[in-house]
Design goal:
With 226 residues, the chain is of the alpha/beta class. It has one domain: Vaccinia Virus protein VP39 (Rossmann fold), CATH 3.40.50. 48% of the residues lie in helices and 21% in strands. The protein is built from 8 helices and 7 strands, in the order H-H-E-H-E-H-E-E-H-E-H-H-H-E-E. The chain has a 7-stranded mixed sheet with strand order 3-2-1-4-5-7-6, sandwiched between helices. Helix 2 packs across helix 3. The chain is globular. It starts with a helix and ends with a strand. The model has no long low-confidence stretch (mean pLDDT 90).
């Protein structure tokens, strides 16, 4: 539970600068990543979506633009949820402060779950995926967008240099939080070494699990069906 407290503190602290840093540090390509993930999931206007680790709502907002009307957001950081509600008016009453491992919803109520760059912040990833499985309807899908270390050695060298040197420096200057943008590259490295999304999703009960690497292999999209 120590990780839960750390993650909550970090994201509450940087919430006001989170969107700016996301778009700046990714060069704006994060918009494309979310759109690509949603298209691969074949989400449609009849979908009932739960956006876990929703933060300030960018994944939910992208889904809304694609015609999804039934959207619920869940996040550990209350500050992030407040900013989500400040960005759009339709989210009010549709967001909850919650961890992935213990979602406060009945069984089999959602057709889709999305998580963008949040799985590595779970304190128990397998437990989180089991929670996803419980609240998804039969044939429901979970779509995960997450960083990974690229396999190409040249791209990997550039990527690691950026993640370990440039990103923390810019993050600290803008967010004024020394820990937050040191935690990010460390969490990505640890996640890449220790976490196998396909294996964990299968252990949680999901079938038809696919993992696709995009943008020179720096990002992965995992889609699993119940």
């Amino acid at each position: 539970m120590e990780k839960k407290k750390q993650v909550q503190r970090i994201f509450d602290s940087i919430s006001n600068k989170y969107d700016l840093l996301n778009h700046l540090l990714s060069g704006g390509i994060d918009y494309y990543w979310r759109k690509k993930a949603l298209k691969l999931s074949k989400i449609n206007s009849n979908s009932k979506l739960l956006d876990v680790a929703c933060g300030t709502g960018d994944f939910s907002i992208a889904a809304k633009k694609m015609g999804i009307t039934k959207i619920t957001g869940a996040d550990l950081s209350l500050n992030m949820l407040k900013l989500f509600n400040n960005k759009v008016n339709w989210s009010k009453g549709n967001v909850v402060e919650s961890v992935a491992e213990n979602l406060p919803f009945k069984d089999e109520v959602f057709t889709n779950i999305t998580v963008a760059f949040g799985v590595r912040n779970f304190y128990d990833i397998l437990e989180g995926f089991k929670s996803f499985y419980r609240v998804l309807k039969p044939n429901g899908k979970v779509t995960i967008l997450e960083f990974r270390l690229p396999s190409n050695p040249i791209v990997k060298t550039i990527y690691l240099f950026y993640f370990k040197n440039i990103l923390p420096l810019i993050g600290r200057i803008i967010s004024k939080d020394k820990e937050a943008y040191t935690y990010l590259p460390e969490s990505v490295g640890e996640f890449n070494e220790k976490v196998q999304l396909k294996k964990l999703l299968s252990e949680a009960g999901f079938t038809k699990v696919t993992v696709k690497a995009i943008t020179f292999g720096i990002v992965q999209i995992a889609i699993a069906e119940k």
